[in-house]
Amino acid sequence: MKTTTYKIYSSIAQLPSTWDEVAYENAFLQTHYLKVLEESAPTNMQCFYIGIFKESELIGVALAQYLNLNKLESFGERDKCFKTYIRNFVFRNFGSHALFLGNNMITGQNGYVFNKKIDIKSVGELLNECANEITLYFKKQNIKIHIVSFKDFYQDCSAELKKSAFSKMYEFNTQPNMIFKLLPQWKTNEDYVASFSKKYRDQYKRAHKKFEGIETRELSLDDIISQESRIYELYHHVAKNAPFNTFFLAKNHFSSFKKQCGNGFILVGYFLNKELIGFHTLLLNGITLETYFLGYDEQVQKEKMLYLNMLYNMTKYGIENQFKEIIFGRTALEIKSSIGAEPVVMSGFIYHNNKLIDKYFDKIFPRLEPNLAWQQRHPFK
User: Fold this and answer.
1) What confidence tens digit (pLDDT) does each residue in 280-298 have?
2) Are 205 and 214 in contact (CB under 8 A)?
3) Strand order in 177-181's β-sheet?
4) Is 379 helix (H, G, I), strand (E, B) or coil?
5) Which residues contact 134 (CB under 8 A, 6 or more apart)?
6) Domains of the chain by range and CATH?
7) Residue 126 in 3-state DSSP?
8) Lowest mean per-residue pLDDT among 117-126, 203-212, 270-279
9) What is the structure's pLDDT at 50?
10) Over the stretch 73-128, which tens digit does the pLDDT of each residue have?
11) Which residues in 84-103 are b (16+ Cβ under 10 Å) and which e?
C-alpha cells in the first residue's frame, strides 16, 4: 500500500493513455462506455474516474458517481403508501446528496478492475480514501455529502471487506441480482425450449401466440436518433412506475450509447402496425450479456405479454451468440426466474456522515426498503 497511490479525474480527456488496457476485462470501465456517461449521464449525476497506480504504473481503475436527489422529479410512483411517503421525506431531507463508489446505473461488481494482483483489503482502503477525497471536494463547494455507498459486491468480496476496510459500515442486501447461467449444450433456442418442463413450455408457447403481429428488429444509430423521443417516452413510463429511482436517463442516452459503443450496444425495437410500442437493450461485456433499460406501451404489454417475450428474446440472443451468462438485474424477480434466471445475493456498504444517523443506520435503512415478496420458479425438467 505504501507505493500505491490514486488520482481522481473529472473528465475522460484527462485519463491516462493506458486506461483501456487496465480496464480490458470490464466494458463498463472502458473509455467508450465512460464517454456515454460524460455525454448523457442523468441530469442529477456527476461522474468521477479513479486511476490507481503502483509507483508510476496504472494498475487499476474505478468509477464514482455523485447523485443529487433533490433534482429528481420522482423517486418512483408505483407504491403509493405511507411508508413510501416517509421514505421520500427521509431521502429528500437527510440523504439527498449521495456518493456511490461503483456504478449506480447497472447491476453487478462493475465499480473497479485491476490488471495486477491486489488484495481486497487494500481495494477497500483505496475506495475509502477516494470517497473521503470526493466528499471533501464537495464540502469545498458548500455541498455536504449525506450518504456514501460502496455498491454491488459478490459474497466472497463482501465477506473480506467486512473484516477489514468496511468493518464499521452497515452492510445491506437489496433485491438479488438475477443471473442466468446458459448451459453449454444449448446450441439453439430450440434446445433451450426443449429443456423446459411442460408447464413452462406451455407458458413459452402461450406467450409466443400472444406475440403474433409484432415485428422486432435491431435499430441502427440513425433509427435510434429518429425514434429518440418515442424511445424515451416508453422508457420513462416504465422508469417512473418503478418502486424506487435515484435517477432518470438523459433523453439522448440511447443514441449516445450506440454512437460510442457501436456493436457493443444493441437496441431492439418492437413494432405493432409500424408504431414503436416497446424496446429492450443489451450490453456485450466479454462472455457476459448484460440486459439494460427497456420500455413499453402498458396496454400492449398486457395484451401481448410483451415483457415476457422480451426476456425470451434476450435469452435467445445470448444462446445463439454463445454467451456464458446473462445478467438480468434486480427487477421483476419472479418472472425472470420463470425463464431460468436465478437469484445471486450481492452486498453493498453504506454510511451516513451524520454520526447520530449513522449510529442507527441498521434500524433506519431496512425501513426505507420497498417490501418484496416473490416466489422463485424452477422452469426446467
Assistant:
1) 999 999 999 999 999 999 9
2) no
3) 214-218, 265-272, 275-285, 288-296, 325-329, 177-181, 342-344
4) coil
5) 8, 48, 64, 66, 99, 145
6) 4-173+346-368 (3.40.630.30), 178-343 (3.40.630.30)
7) helix
8) 117-126
9) 98
10) 544 444 455 445 454 545 555 558 999 999 999 989 999 999 998 999 999 999 99
11) beebbeebeeebbbbbbbbb
Backbone dihedral angles phi then psi of residue 272, each to the nearest 5 degrees: -125, 120
Q: Whole-angstrom Cα distance, residue 125 to residue 261?
A: 32
C-alpha pair distances (Å), 25 with each of 4, 124, 326:
21, 20, 16
Q: C-alpha cell of 358?
A: 449513522
Give residue-wise pLDDT tens across range 308-367.
Answer: 999 999 999 999 999 999 999 988 999 999 999 999 999 999 999 999 989 988 888 777
**3-class secondary structure, 11:** coil
In the chain the first and final C-alpha atoms are separated, in Å, by 51
Q: Measured between alpha carbons, how far is 159 from 162 in angstroms, rounded to an integer? A: 5
How, if at all, do strands 288-296 and 325-329 pair? parallel
What is d(CA 228, CA 376) in angstroms, rounded to the nearest whole number?
A: 36
Other residues' Cβ atoms within 10 Å of the Cβ of residue 218: 12
**In one letter, which amino acid is 273?**
N
Counting every residue written for the chain, the total comes to 381
